[in-house]
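User: Predict the complex.
Assistant: Input components as received:
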Amino acid sequence: MSNAANTNPANANTDANAPHANAADTRVADMNAASMSVLRTRGLRKEYGRGDGLVRAVDGVDLDIGAGETVAVMGPSGCGKSTLLHLLGGLDRPSGGEVSLNGRRIDDIGERALARMRRTSVGFVFQSFHLMEELTAVENIELPALLARRSPRAARRRATALLEQVGLADRARFLPSALSGGQRQRIAIARALSNEPSVVLADEPTGNLDSAAALDVLRLFERLHESGQTLVIVTHDARIAATADRMISMRDGAFVDETRLSGGTGQLGVFIGLED
Amino acid sequence: MGGTMGHLLLVGRLAVRDLRRRRVEAALLLLAVLAATTTLTLGLVLRDAASNPYLHTRKVTNGPDVVASVSQPVALSGLEQLASAPGVVDHSGPYPAIPAKLQASGRTSDIQAVGRDAAHASVDQPELVEGSWVSDGGVVVEAAFAGALKVHTEDRVTVNGRAFRVVGIAVTAASAPYPGTSCVVRVGCANGAVPEDQAAALPLGVLRDPGLVWLTQADVRSLAPDPNSLSYVMNLKLADPDTAQAFADGHLSDGHPGDGHPGGTMPMRTWEDILRDATELAGDSQILLLIGAWLLGLLAVASLSVLVGGRIADQTRRVGLLKAVGGTPSLVAAVLLAEYVVVALVAAGAGLAIGSLTAPMLTGPTAGLIGSAGTPPVTASTAGLVTAVALGVAVVATLVPVVRAARSSTVKALLDAPRPPRRMGWLIAVSARLPVPLLLALRLAARRPRRVLLAVASIAITVSGVYVLLVLNAFLAGQPGTGGYQDAQVEVLRHVLGVWAVILLCLATVNAIVITWATVLDNRRSSALARALGATPREVSVALAAAQVLPALVGAIVGVFPVGFALFSGINAITGGDSDRATLPPPWQLVAVVVATVLVVAALTAVPARLGGRRPVAESLQVELA
């Protein structure tokens, strides 16, 4: 199966029988898609090793994610989901292909520009939370704003508001070690939102949580989705995937299937039986 | 018995394998302890370096226990009576002596010329190292003086304008080697440099740093302008050399009232006095080296603490495994401690070897004594002390992390959970107002306050050493003219200070790099996270370097005052030095030391910090996950 033909979700919704556009039309279409997409990749590859030991962690992925869209990426362990997420957020460099964020190529820019891009346009949520153990909840949340050179007062105001948003206003001065797993992940999500990013990239956000805690996090993602936040969630958890607008399946570094879920928001309640 | 042996074998095998697995760290550990043990060995070996050749010379020349002298023929009878005093078993002399001027190689020097018999004397027969003994028209020159003048046998010299041929070069135990030559002539001697303002106050004709030569008695008498200008010297051998001081004290008043000495006292020098003069330079060198050894020992503790802390953090899982398979906390502690004990023992052995082999470079320029000063023996007490210090350094530096590891929870250890960082709330609040690199730097530093303290201590110790070096260097540069050392002695002390400086700076360099690298490794996750959240590699690199530079700045300031000042005062107190004669470094020099320290630390930490700031973010975060 060729990735170019069958694993491009951007093309998955187009009419397979439509006549082939000429090159100029394709370029115009690409430009239009790029201008509408928050995130866009073309022929994205990430390889490790060489010769017989060559591993294609991400293998020619084309992807377009529109503003406000929630995309869930699923697949077995080691299929390249996390690597894809790192490439999308500029945490890792691709071996080939293109990545654009808000219409700007990020695969060929310097580390400094990448850092600025991450600071302003991307929020990360990690499976193991990655909170600074010596910082309180509110200090963890305000950190990205301080790195973005916002004033300490503005950073703290924003962090306090986000704490309220994630329902942990009363835990502001708690250290991560004094919080439950679910609470830690909600702090991590609040931190990801600190600089009002264009897209939040979440890597197995419920992977380390029990059912109740996972439900809290699911509700939070649901609310983010409703508020129009663009989300890309790598997950094993079908419940999370069910909240997405689109669900993409990966295997051996490539997209093998894409499902557009009807309705998008509100699926969580249906899925877990809270609603009819 | 078998169980104990089994335990010992297991502990030894695990310790050695872990050392081999981490060779670079093991080499750094060795280097840190080696620097301290080498310097300590040098200090201890120097204690014996001068006294051994003196004692050997005393034995070979049948050196006197007491040297008595009178400065006028009228007092000669009192001197001769000493030969039959109770406790005296042998003597030589009295020999006539005159002050004179010797010209050699275009240089004129003050000398004391002693008239000796051509025949062999039973007490103090100077041992020839070149040529033959005195004969009419022939002069024998004391070996250290000959070395300073660069004269050899067969050279032509003049004494008070009369030509003599150098027939021999010899050593004696009746006087300290040049330039510490004992004074036996009436006009008196001024040994060592005399400050210009005091030089004018010296009595007319006083000899300045006189050398010692031997002529025949006839030549000495013929050189004397009149018989009354002769002084006399007699060498006495006592039944019990240990009573020399008591003998001298008991016969102090045997002098003649007309001899020119106050109250008719008779000047006497015991063999212990001469030994002290002969070993004075080595004594000063030894004090400097011992203080250097303690400084280096402290630096070694700092190095080891950081290295051990890092190693044991990396060994958490291994500790968990050992405990999971039945290892008791004491076994775990023994395995961890054994590695450092092995390193300490190797460092002690190597330090003893290097120290004793390099000591000759610091024992002085003199050939004024027989017996090779270059091969002083390493005594059992020296070996024991050096080994004990090496083991002490290792145990002090490792005990806390080893005990902490041994008492850790097995489950947590198996999970390889990193030790939680410290939180300093006020510092976190203050840092929020600073630029990003400083914000990150302060927070990095605050995570491990003990490491910051070690870094401050390490720099403070180094800078205090540099402070003392500056003071001593300025002091030595002012010689002669302000103090008591000759050029040759200044050269030796400069060598000692040079050795000090090189070892101190090398160890401080190793410390700075090791501490930075430990910080980089310890902060892999937080650095990667800061970058994931938007910090640039440059900001993280600058933060990692600044986390070292800020403690370096504090350490440098503290190292100048009060630590440097206190160290210098301590050295003065121990050596009985006169701090008024030393010039403290001017403020600009102290500021330059602080600035240079900060710049050097910044340069040393730049590479590890840059590497740390550019580690792949995703990889670092994934490693933590794994």
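The CA atoms of residues 45 and 378 of chain B lie 7 Å apart.
Let me know if you want any component modeled separately.
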